[in-house]
Fold this protein.
Amino acid sequence: MGQDEDILAFLKIKNVDDLFEDIPSDVRSNIDGIGKGVNEIQLIKEANRIGKMNHSEMDIFLGLGAYDRFIPSSINNIIMRNEFITSYTPYQAEISQGMLQALFEYQSIISDLTEMDVTNSSMYDGPTALGEAIRMAHRINGNSKVLLPSNIRKSHLQVLQTYINGLGISIQFYGVNEDGTINLDALNSLMDKDVSAVVTYNPSNYGTIDPGVSKIAEIKGSALHVAYYDPVSLALLKPPGAYDADIAVSEGQEMGIPLYYGGPYLGLFSFNQKYVRKSPGRLIGKTTDVNGDPAYVMTLQTREQHIRRDRATSNICTNQALLAIASTAYLSILGKNGLKWVASKTMQNVKTLLETMGRVGYVNQYKWKNPFFCDFLVDVGDRSGNLFPYMEQHNILGGIQASRVLNAVERERNNSVFFAATEMNDKEQMENLATVMEGFQ
Amino acid sequence: MNYHQATYDEKLLKDIKSGNTFVGDDVEEPSIPRDMKRKELNLPDIGENDVIRHYVKLSQMNYSVDTGFYPLGSCTMKFNPKYADRIANDPKFTRIHPIMDQEYTQGSLRIMYELKEYLIAVSGMDAVSLQPLAGAHGEFTSLLVAKKYMEDIGMAQRTEVIIPDSAHGTNPASAAMAGFSVVQIPSTEEGKINLDALNEALTDKTAVFMITNPSTLGLFETNITKIAKAVHDNKSLLYYDGANLNAILGYSSPGAMGFDMVHFNLHKTFATPHGGGGPGAGPIAVKAFLSKYLPYPSIEKEGEKFVLKEDKTDSIGRVAGFQGSFINLLRAWAYIRYKGSEGLLQNTQRAVLNANYIAAKLEPILKYRINGIKKHEAIFSTANVHKSAMDIAKYIIDKGMHAPTTYFPLIVKEALMIEPTEDASIEDMDKFCELIKEAVEMSDEELHKMPQHLKIGKADDVKAAKDLILKW
């Protein structure tokens, strides 16, 4: 530590402790509770040992906001570039043009995917993006009610409730059809001038594609339509911008981000241009430099916490920049045909899996007017609660009770469980799943 | 020798038209309800090799900790160890679905449990929630805890949060977001908490007093015991903004100073990479009497098993879709495990040593001095040498170092906030001080031409906000 001694000499002090003599004795404490450190060899071994306590090689047939999708190998190289992963928020624009351009591209590509005007440079995750969307709608119209589908996912509802704490917003649930899609009559009967936001899901919370989202524009009045979508599904489905959603939010994990046991993920947040000044989060804008050349900067910072403080549109400082790059690289590498392939393969595998399950006696007894996209429900009888652990014992993740993950499930769906398929599931896995399920009876 | 950043006229992704190279396999045409079919999809049409080239070029036009000295004050840009990246990329941790039953995720849960215990040990608090996804998110969560507590003990009328004028912007923003109104108090001439102003502001409406210690001026609040007493005598809560925890680790702790709640920025104190803006992780810790209000699920140990508990009775609820920013929790775990208590203490010592070195070197150059021993950062004003902080910043980046934080804290005119961290070499610090000296000696006219050796010259922020181009 030659350097430390030089500095001590320069500062004319004997001991580094002298620099802490302003800390009074009655507030002193040490950190002995942590124990001794280890070297890198020991650390890697220890992490490896602990990692083996996880079952990371299950066949994954479960989604519900976290999807096991194909990730092009290039993406990890890109996001592990030292210059990206070890940089800070690009406060000094001129020395950070790489990150700024990458984030501008992220905003652009998500705006293209959703056909929305503006996308911010990311939020924490899907559910918190939904929470921020409801806060933004309230800032815009000042109304006091938010309408949610009765079958909303519990975790979404729980985060939303936390996010609107103290705003004086009340939640009302609108009914859904037998296949989980919006019951437009039920929704319409709840519409009045106090509604701040109508939240819709496409695919619905039962996993079905929901044509009802197209009808919200006709009935919303002064309320804002907050559309929660599935980004990969947009390869095939009408995007939120095409049905005039005001704010479109989602979880971006499935675009190039591993499952990570739940995080960090990527909150996608897009909106109509006219609301830009009421929007949360960071925005990257294109401008020019003194020479008239193209340049990128963080813009509209006057909405943000470091300038506006308690009047800011959100408290966002750190966001998910690096994962925003992962999703942009994902969409670029896959391109139009690749993304369509992923979405189509997903739907095909869902169909095949349903047929395979049907062969061993598991079908859905209800009327499914619209096709499933990726998550789907199937009925497994009155022992439905036992299926999930049973499947796990056979190294398959899937079959969780709908009532465990959804807010309100009609009585007759007590026997319904969730599975999902993606492009990663092959025929062999599906056949194996059916054989295992056959043994459940 | 001048620094030259790589400079490419790199096109936008959509304008690189080398042709998509993705290979799938046969797939049938899906049947979509007719009016839900997408008409047109615009995505880039570029080969995978060119996507790589694109990002490699962009990365070369981006400064980072691994590029060089990055003394961005308050952001603690320390070295991000690569062993943590290696562990964070292990499929045994990355390929775990968040809804898997706990029996099958014992490894991840053990990491979470051990990190929780570490955070309790370093903070001197009693209970931890790992769920908040960033520092500001942790502030928001803690303030909801405070609110719930106040409602619970029949003090729902306590709707105010007091914040010093030197605070990080996230503090007032988070307080407002949690439904509090913000009362700002002035600092003393020396930038410390003004006890008189605090006592005056403390009323039967005060729920929380939020501060960081050391303050954003890099000074330890020696009156902390008096401050804590005043706040607690008023039946209010004391909140510790953990952004500056790295300055005192091993010498003091929020618990020892009498704080009731704290958030940690794992990317600051525990070296998780900041990713050009994120992702971060912002766990929080509280004293025992607040623990029942923490978000669910919480990580516990029952016998030999690690379990996530969903006790909703008094909890403020859930603040994230799943269990938190797990991969960053894993990185922080690896860092703490590697460093141990001794290594963490050494970090604190070196960070403070380096900040004092820079302070001592710059005082004669900038003709400015904040009295008192610096902790982890040195704050200067460039007003006494009649220069703008931004001009100096632009000169520094032109010479291949990152600039300090500018214009913060707000209470210092033309502020430069310099945080070298424990990893700075004396050569880098000397060079940095030399650059500031050169900038001070330059004419304003010359300075205004900076930067000249980066990808772009000075960017036009006004135009960006006026014309507002947010999409290609």
